[in-house]
Design goal:
This protein has 279 residues and is mostly helical. It has one domain. It is built from 10 helices and 2 strands, in the order αββααααααααα. The protein has helices spanning 2-28, 43-47, 53-76, 79-82, 87-98, 103-106, 113-125, 129-182, 189-246, 254-265, and strands at residues 31-33, 40-42. Strands 1-2 form a two-stranded antiparallel sheet. The longest helix has 58 residues, at 189-246. Mean pLDDT is 78; it is low at 29-35, 249-262 and 275-279.
Length: 279
């Protein structure tokens, strides 16, 4: 938990530094010339300042959150972390060497899909193979749903940001018509510029946030579903091995164990007292 917290803090810090760097560079010297000679506007003024308070206090923070979530999920929702390539083989080897009873102790501390599902199945199954089977698949489903809920914030941002951009468009148009009304229907171009800028820039930012957010959300959904499908296949193989392992109880070895104890204690085995018939 502590490692994850510091990782998220570092990602947020890098995102803040990146945005601050972009703002500083655009304010310093990237100038876009306008038709009016001798005048110019920086990229920062044209794409941020012109949008007004809607860009500053709503859309820019939403873009920052979207970038943070995308980077954080790309580091946590990975096949190498959630479904290692050799996890099924390792669990099967543990079952073959130590039996199903040792799985919980051997898999303690593992955070991948299959290991967590196997441990939950052992805890909830209580020796019943059918109950363990149901608990195993339910655990896989719960883990997938938990990750789907986490990435749902990207889908929410992707759907809300165009609405915020549309809201900015409405605000800009209201300001535009107010200028026309207060000037008697003959406003100057500079008086209309602010309303038009708010209307266009907010729409621009809404789409700029929504398009990558929805695309990234779809990519993560596809990745989680693929991991769940592959984890289910691994679980089927592990269940078969657990069922076979549960059919190898120590009762088959008990006669040999009793015979060894009798020999160590100096007692003859029951077979030695049987009469020998001669034919």
């Amino acid at each position: 938990m502590r490692k994850s917290f510091w990782l998220k803090t570092f990602i947020l810090f890098v995102a803040l530094v990146g945005i601050a760097t972009v703002i500083f560079v655009t304010m310093r010297g990237l100038v876009i010339t306008e038709p009016t000679p001798g005048k110019g506007r920086t990229l920062f003024e044209q794409f941020v300042t012109s949008g007004g308070w809607i860009v500053w206090f709503i859309l820019l923070p939403m873009s920052l959150v979207m970038v943070f979530l995308a980077v954080e999920h790309s580091l946590t929702i990975r096949r190498k972390k959630l479904l290692p390539s050799d996890i099924g083989t390792k669990i099967v080897e543990v079952i073959q060497q130590f039996g199903p009873a040792q799985l919980e102790a051997r898999l303690a501390g593992q955070n991948d899909f299959v290991s967590i599902a196997v441990v939950n199945a052992i805890n909830q199954g209580r020796g019943d193979w059918f109950r363990m089977r149901n608990a195993l698949f339910e655990s896989l489903q719960e883990q997938a749903v938990r990750f789907l809920r986490r990435i749902e914030w990207l889908n929410l941002i992707g759907n809300v940001s165009p609405m915020v951009g549309l809201f900015g468009t409405i605000v800009g148009m209201i300001e535009l018509f107010n200028v026309i009304a207060t000037t008697g229907g003959q406003p100057q171009a500079t008086q209309l510029a602010h309303g038009i800028s708010v209307a266009l820039v907010t729409t621009f930012w809404g789409l700029l946030i929504a398009i990558p957010a929805i695309a990234i959300h779809g990519a993560f959904v596809n990745r989680i579903e693929t991991l769940l499908s592959d984890a289910t296949e691994e679980a089927e193989n592990i269940l078969a091995e657990m069922r076979d392992g549960s059919k190898k109880p120590i009762t088959a070895q008990q006669p040999k164990l009793k015979q060894v104890i009798r020999e160590v204690a100096g007692k003859p085995s029951p077979q030695a007292n049987k009469p020998v018939t001669l034919r």
